[in-house]
Amino acid sequence: MFSFFKSKKDPAEPTPESTAESVSLADKVRHGLSRTRQNLGKQLSGLFGGGKIDEALYEELETILLTADTGVNATNRLLEDLRKQVKRDGLSDAAQLKKALQEALITMLAPLEQPLDMTKEKPFVIMITGVNGVGKTTSIGKLAKYFQSEGKSVLLAAGDTFRAAAREQLIVWGERNNIAVIAPENDPNNRNDPAAVIFDAVNAAKARNIDVVLADTAGRLTTQLHLMEEIKKVKRVIAKAMPDAPHEVLLVLDANTGQNAVAQVKAFDEALGVTGLVLTKLDGTAKGGVIAAIATQHVENPPALRFLGVGEGVDDLRPFDAREFVEAIFD
């Protein structure tokens, strides 16, 4: 029923870093967030160019933040923090607010900065989910490359048995990175059980002493309740293959969806207990403020923002760093 795909190519030999590869992570993030910086950053720089701090300034700042998809809750909190700091520190010039806003944003986003701890379980099983079209399968390929660069062995599970091209896409990613893929036999009628595919992959990883299993699942809308029930089943079956697994449930979000991303976090968290997020396509949006909206939607227990997608390259999926992100969107 299932096939084990592995590239026949020899593992790539290490090569000297190219100029592109030697670019710092901060520069990659800054380049990937150029559209947000051109929109949000330039507007803020204009606003903070000088002049007095008054209600008109606060109103204009509110408009800028809302149009960047920062969200009402995050915008109100940022404005409240700024007003307090202006009063506490006796600020009077608009130019002084730029640094204050940066620090307020960093403080707001810092709880999302939670790197993965993969030291306690082997294999470390990561279940990846999300709605259709967010870049889920591509993110899996990039995650595989990232974990390889960390010296970890990886196995891919082609658990999206509903989308015709998903299996083939994952096999291609496996070939590119010299990674094994557990996939169902090609069935045009889509009768393969995704839970069974991933169950088989976890057992294969245990037998082969693999460090990380990346399990793809079928994309689904949050309103498709019957499909949400199916993905709950996938999670239960993974636990049968390995107690306490999956060790991470990663929800992939498309930054272009704006405030709808917040609703997706809520729906998938209720169904699966989301432990981490991957925010893709930040290079394609001018509204990177959605991260602040996510942070303030879950104030008591914010989800960990594990990775940002800041470009189309295989190395353009980067761990989230709050300060690095905020500094990248300001001129």
TrEMBL record:
Highest taxon of the lineage: Bacteria
InterPro entries: AAA+_ATPase (IPR003593), P-loop_NTPase (IPR027417), Signal_recog_particl_SRP54_hlx (IPR013822), SR_rcpt_FtsY (IPR004390), SRP/SRP_N (IPR036225), SRP54_GTPase_dom (IPR000897), SRP54_N_sf (IPR042101)
Domain SRP54-type proteins GTP-binding: from-to ranges: 123-331
Catalytic activity field: GTP + H2O = GDP + phosphate + H(+)
Domain AAA+ ATPase positions: 122-305
Positions annotated to bind GTP: 130-137, 216-220, 280-283
Subcellular location: Cell membrane; Cytoplasm
GO MF: GTP binding; GTPase activity; signal recognition particle binding
Top EC class for this record: hydrolase
Alphabetized UniProt keyword annotations: Cell membrane, Cytoplasm, GTP-binding, Hydrolase, Membrane, Nucleotide-binding, Receptor
Chain ranges of the Signal recognition particle SRP54 helical bundle domain: 29-109
Region of interest (Disordered), residue spans: 1-25
A GO CC annotation given for this chain: cytoplasm
EC number of the protein: 3.6.5.4
GO biological process: SRP-dependent cotranslational protein targeting to membrane
CDD domains, per the entry: FtsY
Membrane topology of the entry: Peripheral membrane protein
Function statement: Involved in targeting and insertion of nascent membrane proteins into the cytoplasmic membrane. Acts as a receptor for the complex formed by the signal recognition particle (SRP) and the ribosome-nascent chain (RNC). Interaction with SRP-RNC leads to the transfer of the RNC complex to the Sec translocase for insertion into the membrane, the hydrolysis of GTP by both Ffh and FtsY, and the dissociation of the SRP-FtsY complex into the individual components.
HAMAP family: FtsY
Record-stated family: Belongs to the GTP-binding SRP family. FtsY subfamily.
SUBUNIT field: Part of the signal recognition particle protein translocation system, which is composed of SRP and FtsY. SRP is a ribonucleoprotein composed of Ffh and a 4.5S RNA molecule.
Protein name as it appears in the record: Signal recognition particle receptor FtsY
Species of provenance: Nitrosomonas cryotolerans ATCC 49181
Gene name as annotated: ftsY
